[in-house]
Amino acid sequence: MSKILSLGSALQDIYLIDHDDLIGTEVHSVRDGKKTIFGDLIFGSKVDIDKMSFEIGGGGTNSAVTFARHGHESVFIGNVGRDIAAQAIMNCLDEEGIDSSYVKVLPRKTTGTSVVLLDSKSGERTILTCRGASAEFSNLDDAVLEEIRPDWLYITSLRGDLETLTRFVKRAKKLGAKIMFNPGVLELKRAKKLLNLLPELDAILLNRREAMALVPGVTLEELLEKLARYVKIVLITDGQMGAIATDGLDIYRFAIYEDFKVKDTTGAGDAFGSGFLAHYAAGKSFRQSLIFASANSSYVVTQLGAKRGILTGAEKLHPMPIQKLN
């Protein structure tokens, strides 16, 4: 197995779950084609909900859990505050066997927290997030890579902090570590600078909309061809339409693993990307790793929160539609 360092955010997700009070039939107002009120929730009113659930989220911890459950030596680096939410995150990392010794505490910041309004009947949700410490990355020291010596560095969104991203990527490459990146919206807003960094990466995960923000193209095939000029391993997802991927040699087009009933889509992208790397870093073939990525993502959305459905890699997977294009 490998040592994999996950760099990204850590949050506590607080779910407010209800069967029929959060989603209503009346649209109170519309702006730019979007509802500006969540269901029938009115400011100033009181709404009884059916239940609450406290979960741990954030792209960094989600991926770290996938790697740990797969049997890899998993390390997480990110920021938390000094509060109850931070303790919950640290407890989760400890329970999963993840090395949390490089997590930084920012005492003047609250730990990142999301409140998820989830309608259990329809699966619709609205997320209110206070990023707090999870919005900060510039304080993290890339010199820790000298001590950790990871085989892989897996990076999720750093809230547009391309300076910190560049520091970690350059140091990792110098040490001979391989790098996989799953950028977020704020990184993609700095597309020109991000494109200059892509040749330093070994793998990148994007959804179709994100890929279109980075390179010209509309179809998955067009986008893959453009991105493969920069990065050897490229994975592009397209929701229910499946995904496309290349390892620089072969190109695969594949559907979703299974059309399960969706309970909560939180963490689906994290499960796909980290699921791929968990299998690939364990010595599985590119094709096998893509199938596991799809399965990991499919199972995660059947459970509440981003971590409950994460697989271990020991499960027996059934065949799925996957086609080699070249």
Task: Report what the structure shows.
- The protein is α/β, with parallel strands linked by helices.
- The chain has a single domain, classed as UDP-N-acetylmuramoyl-L-alanine:D-glutamate ligase, CATH 3.40.1190.20.
- The chain is 29% helix and 23% strand.
- The strands form four sheets. A nine-stranded mixed β-sheet has the order 6-1-11-12-13-14-15-16-17, sandwiched between helices. The chain has a four-stranded mixed β-sheet with strand order 5-2-9-10. It has a two-stranded antiparallel sheet with strand order 3-4.
- Strand 7, helix 2 and strand 8 form a beta-alpha-beta unit.
**How much β-strand is present in the residues?**
15-25%
**Structural category:** alpha/beta
Mean pLDDT: 92
CATH architectural name: 3-Layer(aba) Sandwich
- Please summarize the sheet with the most strands: 9 strands, mixed
Order of H and E elements: EEEEEHEEHEEEHEHEHHEHHEEEHHE
Through-space gap between termini: 30 Å
| Lateral arrangement of strands in the main beta sheet | 6-1-11-12-13-14-15-16-17
Whole-number count of domains: 1
Query: Judging from the principal axes of the Cα atoms, what is the shape?
Result: globular
- Look at the structure and name the CATH superfamily: Ribokinase
CATH topology: UDP-N-acetylmuramoyl-L-alanine:D-glutamate ligase
Q: Please report the total strand number as a whole number.
A: 17
